[in-house]
Amino acid sequence: MVNGISLGSVYALIALGYTMVYGIVKLINFAHGDVLMIGAVAGFFTMSAMGDATPVTLFGAFLVSMLVCAVFGILIEKICYKPLRNAPKINALITAIGVSILLENGAVVLPFIGPQPKAFPTMTDKSHTFLGLTISNVQIIEFAVSIILMIVLTVIINYTKMGKAMRAVSHDTKAALLMGINVNRVISFTFALGAALAAAAGILFSSAYPQVEPYMGIMPGLKAFVAAVLGGIGSVPGAVLGGFVIGIAETLTKGFISSTLADAIVFGILIVILVVKPSGILGKNIREKV
Amino acid sequence: MLVLKVSGLNVFYGNIHALHDISFEVNEGEIVTLIGANGAGKTSTLHTVSGIIQPKSGQISFMGKPITGVAANKIVEMGLCQVPEGRRIFANMSVMENLEMGAYTRKDKGNLKGDYEVVFTRFPRLKERIRQLAGTLSGGEQQMLAMGRALMSKPKLLLLDEPSMGLAPLFVKEIFSIIQDINKAGTTVLLVEQNANMALSIANRAYVLETGHIALSGDAKKLAASEEVRKAYLGG
């Protein structure tokens, strides 16, 4: 259960990126998982450059990799998705898959990353026991960082000018344009925000499974996508809820049924959701505008 | 002084020629109305002026500066704001947040507080519902919010697209008298309406659009009296 919650909080971070981008540009950004990989790689190099894994270097790694990924997110949108904004949605979707493959194979080819998995520096594992639950320090960090980032995100979305503009654009892009909102800037900001969260998730993920390799983003990316759909794509609280549900479902299956079945169960949830309630738990039913 | 000058505007949707050589002018302090049947090109004209649709040819200038091809958000910043058809308020945001979005382009943060008050005095109902989600307002209140939101950008020229659409007659009267008040307070108004009677009654001048062409233009009172317009648009 504890494992599930900490894993779920990481999925929730990734799912937030999917759901925000979808809310604004109605695009499932399949390259999102690979941004996680870039974040993990950036974090790996920062930590290696700064020396041993300590809370200070970990913090540095978060800062650097979130910044790097924010820039990456903006570039990916500007170069790959913006030219297709008025094209049929399927074109952008295929492009997203293309970007994903490009990032993975780009990472394989680059000499300083390469196909070999690298060990991610971790702090010495300490377990704490209270109330009969065993929690490792990595799990505490995972949970704490995720919660802090979610709170920061909530504040941004609800109380800053840019966050309000994001909600306005997501509700009605044309009306937002007519109010003088710079929609391009809002879209860039959304991609940057989503990518930064993915970067943080990348570091948390590679702290828990301490290695970094080019294809590491695929599975967490897909599972977080399932989480976003489960919660209701486009809904921010839905993504968080979905992330926790998927994380808990996965670890419970691993613990009590069979570890080989865990992934099957997660994607089974996707199929069930799409059949039973396609709009997700907290999703809005899409209503045709008059 | 000329606030808006549109000349020789041609707009296409794919192969469909939606606007043919549209030319019109709006002078400072006027209420000018564009009337015409459904599909005559009224909304297309406003969207082109606002920079949401790019024309194939033709010039638009606002306060003497060309705005053809200028980004929509820059046009709002210059002082030209539109209240879109169907209101299009941000239903998932509070009344206050909607007004804040209207003030998005404002650089003079110090004056904002007073301007919110001006909007609230003009629309007291909005003040009562300041924390309410905009989607829960009635149609008339939503129209008021849409107008208040646009006024927060401090426009020199306010474009209004079908403000009476879907409103109860009582609200229509109220909205039209508010439009006159806004105009008296110094904002030039370009009004697009299907309700030609109402529009002509408050406008100085009018242009009649017919399938993408300007068919008639002139003094609003004279047009309202003319046989031709009465037959075609005023039901007798």
User: What's the overall geometry of chain A?
Assistant: globular
- State the helix count of chain B: 10
What does the largest sheet of chain A look like? 2 strands, antiparallel
Helix content of chain A: over 70%
What oligomeric state best describes the polypeptide chains here? heterodimer
Shape of chain B: globular
Protein structure class of chain A: mainly alpha
User: How many β-strand runs of chain B?
Assistant: 10
Taking all residues together, what is the mean pLDDT of chain B? 93
Strand order of the largest sheet of chain A: 1-4
- Distinct helical segment count of chain A: 11
What class, by secondary structure content of chain B?
alpha/beta
**In sequence order, what are the helices and strands of chain A, one letter per element?**
HHHHEEEHHHHEHHH
Distance between the termini of chain B: 36 Å
Nearest-integer average pLDDT of chain A: 90
Strand proportion of chain B? 25-35%
Whole-angstrom Rg of chain B: 17 Å
Structure overview:
The complex is a heterodimer of chains A (290) and B (236). By secondary structure, chain A is mainly alpha-helical. Chain A has one domain (13-230). Helix content of chain A is 72%, strand content 4%. Chain A is built from 11 helices and 4 strands, in the order H-H-H-H-E-E-E-H-H-H-H-E-H-H-H. In chain A, the strands form 2 sheets. Chain A has a two-stranded antiparallel ribbon. In chain A, strands 2-3 form a two-stranded antiparallel ribbon. In chain A, a hairpin with a 2-residue loop joins strand 2 (127-130) and strand 3. Chain A starts with a helix and ends in a 14-residue tail after the last helix. With 236 residues, chain B is of the alpha/beta class. Chain B is 38% helix and 28% strand. Chain B has 10 helices and 10 strands. Chain B has helices at residues 42-50, 72-78, 95-102, 112-122, 124-128, 139-151, 169-184, 196-202, 220-225, 227-233; strands at residues 2-13, 16-27, 31-36, 57-62, 65-66, 80-83, 157-161, 188-193, 205-210, 213-219. In chain B, the strands form 2 sheets. A 6-stranded mixed sheet of chain B has the order 6-7-8-3-9-10, sandwiched between helices. In chain B, strand 1 (2-13) and strand 2 form a beta hairpin. The longest helix of chain B is centred in the last third of the chain and has 16 residues, at 169-184. The interface between A and B is medium-sized, with 19 and 27 residues.
